[in-house]
Design brief:
The chain is an alpha/beta fold. 51% of the residues lie in helices and 15% in strands. The protein folds into two domains: 3-208, Spore Coat Polysaccharide Biosynthesis Protein SpsA, Chain A, CATH 3.90.550; 239-350, no CATH class. This is Glycosyltransferase family 2 protein.
Length: 359
């Protein structure tokens, strides 16, 4: 098989070397590793050229990551049997490409995403690590995934060529979506291909280190997903996603009602604590603990944060905020017909224009 790796990068000089080294250390070497330096103002391309890889230097592209991927794919990966997509701050375990090559032999293989984890310390990174572990386990349990994350996934070259032949794009990746990974995965599933989480491939990636950057990232993910779902409509492929959106909206409402009831009871001096009322927090504690024990490279702090409830509950409130704000953004766009650059909003939240931009 011909296997080509595409790595889009914008101002990633501090991480691109480790990413490339993880690719060169694979038990099954890729036939081509293509670093797509998109409008870099730092030494990303200089660092990449120290390694035996292909470096594409491009100006700052209008459609950012999607356009960079399409340009790299059209020049270097159009005829590949297997295409691996990686972010420039991601490290793959050594068995990744070899295992993906084996998986690609399965019937109707469309793509396989890695099991992502974050190894950085700190509250926000630990919470994201827990989220990743939960979502990965859900994908493994279901036997399919609705997002082949571009940060570390492998795609059937044949399937990508079929998607690229559509009239609404220049390559496999769409310019209409702010969450191009979700859109591409939907198109693969729509065409009858299987997309799933690999049971053996692990990837290590960076997490958002504070609430502002996490909010910016999740606003882009959530608002972009909402916009795509409205475009796709309700069908057999999106019904579970719509159900998740409904539950995501109900969650914050229930929490706000709970706080209102407790506050009113305290004000009226009618609050009474009964033993069975403690079953709910203990249930949440058990669910959090079940997720925590599955976190790779967990430590005592991961377990502590799960069983004390408060840290995870705080994140749940924050999550409810960006979910409501995302739907508000979608409604605003429908009313005003004015688009907002969700990528730029994420960059601003991360403060990366002056440091580095995460693709």
């Amino acid at each position: 098989m011909n296997i080509t790796v595409l790595v889009p990068a914008h101002n990633e000089e501090h991480t691109i070397g480790e990413t490339i080294e993880s690719l060169l250390a694979q038990t099954r070497k890729a036939d081509q590793i293509v670093i797509i330096a998109n409008g870099c103002t730092d030494r990303t391309a200089v660092v990449a050229r120290k390694y035996p890889v292909i470096v594409m230097e491009l100006p700052r592209l209008k459609h950012r990551k999607s356009e960079a991927m399409n340009r790299g794919w059209n020049i270097y990966a159009r005829h590949a049997d297997l295409v691996v997509s990686m972010d420039a701050d991601t490290v793959l375990a050594p068995n990744a490409i070899e295992d993906w090559e084996k998986e690609s032999q399965k019937r109707l293989f469309g793509g396989s995403t890695s099991k992502f984890t974050i190894q950085q310390p700190g509250y926000w990174c630990r919470m994201q690590k827990s989220e990743y572990a939960y979502n990965i386990q859900q994908g493994l349990n279901h036997g399919w995934t609705n997002v082949l994350a571009g940060a570390g996934s492998a795609f059937s070259g044949f399937a990508l060529r079929e998607i690229a032949d559509r009239d609404d794009r220049e390559g496999p990746w769409s310019y209409e979506s702010a969450v191009e990974d979700f859109e591409l995965t939907y198109r693969l599933r729509e065409a009858g291909y299987r997309t799933y989480v690999s049971r053996t491939v692990r990837a290590y990636t960076d997490g958002m280190k504070n609430m502002k950057s996490l909010w910016g990232q999740r606003m882009k993910w959530q608002a972009g997903t909402c916009q795509d779902l409205l475009r796709f409509g309700v069908n057999r492929l999106t019904i579970r996603d719509w159900g998740s959106q409904i539950l995501n909206l109900i969650g914050p409402v229930i929490r706000m009602l709970w706080v209102t009831v407790i506050t009113l009871a305290l004000y009226l001096d009618t609050l009474t604590i009964v033993w069975w009322g403690l079953l709910v927090p203990f249930l949440f504690m058990a669910i959090n603990l079940k997720t925590a024990v599955r976190i790779p490279f967990k430590d005592k702090w991961d377990i502590f944060m799960a069983v004390t409830i408060i840290p995870t509950e705080f994140l749940a409130w924050i999550r409810g905020g960006w979910i409501i704000a995302s739907w508000g953004e979608v409604i605003r766009k429908k009313i005003t017909h004015k688009d907002r650059d969700l990528w730029a909003a994420q960059y601003k939240a991360e403060g990366v224009e002056s440091v580095r931009i995460r693709n």
